[in-house]
Amino acid sequence: MRHMTVVFSMACLILSPLCFAQEHPIVTPVRATRVNKPVICPPKPLVQMAILLDTSGSMSGLIDQARGELWSIVNEFISSQRDGVTPEIHVALFEYGKSSLPQASGYIRSIVPFTTDLDTLSEELFALHTNGGDEYCGWVIKEAVEGLKWSDNSRDLKVIFIAGNEPFTQGPVDYKISNKAAIKKGIIVNTIHCGSEAAGLEGQWKQGALIADGQYLNINQNQKIVYIPAPQDDQIALLSQQLNSTYIPFERQGTERQTAQAAQDHNAKRLSVTSSLQRAVAKASSNYSNSHWDLVDAIKRKGLDPNTLKPNDLPEVMKTMSPKQRFVYIDQKARKRANIQVQIKKLNEQRNAYVAQVKKSQPSQKTLGSAITLAIRDQAIKSGLTFVDPKTKTK
Q1: H helices within 196-306, ranges in order?
Q2: What percent of the chain has pLDDT over 70?
Q3: Are strands 188-194 and 157-164 parallel, antiparallel or unpaired?
Q4: 63 and 167 co-located in one domain
Q5: What's the pLDDT tens digit per position in 35-59?
């Protein structure tokens, strides 16, 4: 009976202040005797985004942009809401146009189905390489439309972004059929041509977008992401490192995924300071969830009872703890994480204001990330999401 009381009290302690939609937990002791009914939370809005990347020989710059701007793309939704609830972001990744992929399957590979595991997405992006091939846009769109588990809810935002540089008309699958099938399911197809606007128009990239209610954009895939230094940068970087110490790995994959977390920190830092900072901001948001390997997230999001785990599935420091000691330890980590996340969020708001002023005197960049965020915010608003100004808390 004591064990059940401890479990229930701790679940209340960590979970009761959160309706899972909230950005950060507010950990407040709650007396179990006063909690008679579970809190009913409104369902989370869903954003499903499939990114289709041309990985033929000339696209190494595009892959670098995807690696560096994954975090800024996801961060676009940090301030978004529907009915007061922050959406959950699911991202899928395909590559196409690489000659080392099987010809019989259209030189296409589904890399990651819809997932919230951003570290795995980053891992896969850093593992990509290019070589020559034929780019079949119609075929890869067909694979994404038919092969992914798209939501049936008409209010959820469902989008495809396909980026490449060869004519949109290549291959045996007619892009018109594929894109009409997409929009019939409520899936918007946005096309990003890597090259001049005129070449994209000639290659029918704009026509591909129009058929599926999407936007046609063109970018320079070799454009380097410009880093704008800000006074908050060093502190954000330090807090990002401290955030990692709040994760508690469990079961066999826990230690492996914690190592992967640090590896993706390193990859982002190695690529650019901007990428590293944007990753830190993502880690401080609700979009960065690791409930499959971290006890804090597993309790918060799935209601896991850590005392149901075998000692060998726990980290060394927790193996000899009593049930109560385990919950106290987890709660300490949860409190520390929430505090760090709040600090990062505030610093990022200050940084964004500073960078916005500097950018006024600089030409805009035309990269994969800027193209996606430009299109998806407009489409998100049309789907019923609103974006709240973090300073004024107004829409």
Answers
A1: 197-202, 205-211, 233-244, 251-271, 273-283, 295-302
A2: 88
A3: parallel
A4: yes
A5: 344 445 567 899 999 999 999 988 9
